[in-house]
Amino acid sequence: MPLAGQVVGEGVRLVRPLGRGSHSVVYFAVGPDGQPCAVKIFDPHFASHAVREYGNGTALDHPRLMRVLAPVRVSDQPGLIVTLARGRVLFGRYTRRPALTFERRAFLLTLAHLLDALGYLHARGLVHRDVKPENILVEPDGSATLVDFDLSGPNREIFATPTRLGTAAFQSPEAARGEALGPESDLYSAGVLLGWGLHGALSGPDVPPPPLPDPLDPLLAALTEPDRTRRLASAAEAKETLLRLAGLPY
Fold it and tell me: Which keywords fit this entry according to its UniProt record (predicted)?
């Protein structure tokens, strides 16, 4: 049955779909006070993801992170009321590529905001584990919000069997091996996005190197170091390095 128009929770009205992922669909909604919000509705098979996201996100409060407000049921499906992250997904926002060539200041702000969000998560013992363009909403000026915590979890969380978490194109080598993940794995994914901003394409054997070196090349190497023990593991240090190499104040 159509979900638009339904009222869930404490008077939150679903208005229209905003997007769909592998586990859920997100609706634009309006609260009883008239304020916009979003409702993330999970496929019943992924009810455990709703529980995990609520547990991970309910205590988080940072301007560069989506806030998880309350659990709800929507037509017998598990859901979450969350703050509305404005903007477009990262790849949709930066259509002129490479982004660091055509919109350098805006893309640097996006990366800085992403690193701010990751630093906040990591300081609280959490790892996002699915940093990718679809989970980063970017506004016209480059301001960014990191969303979706249904794959997030404690630093170095161990599962009963090796579990590959994240999205293949943005996974760290250790994530692809199913190892327990720490902050350096999120930063590897941020490095992949930095590489995309520099090259205009994801890394791989068919991606040509940029014609000229860029001041951010050393940071790219530090973030995408295959050996996790040698990789840059501090989001705050990564942000400071980003802005210093870019010649911006921090």
Answer: ATP-binding, Kinase, Nucleotide-binding, Serine/threonine-protein kinase, Transferase
Q: Which residues are annotated as a binding site for ATP?
A: 40
Looking at domain 7-82, which of 3.30.200.20, 3.40.50.1000, 3.50.30.20, 1.10.1370.30 is its CATH number? 3.30.200.20
Q: Which residues are annotated as a binding site?
A: 40
| pLDDT < 70 positions in the chain | 1, 204-211, 250
Angle at 73 between CA 35 and CA 146, to 5 degrees: 55
The amino acid at residue 137 is L
Total-model pTM: 0.94
Structure tokens at 111: 């990366």
Looking at residue 166, the DSSP 8-state letter turns out to be S
- CATH 3.30.200.20 positions along the chain are 7-82
**Tens digits of per-residue pLDDT, 67-84?**
999 999 998 899 999 999
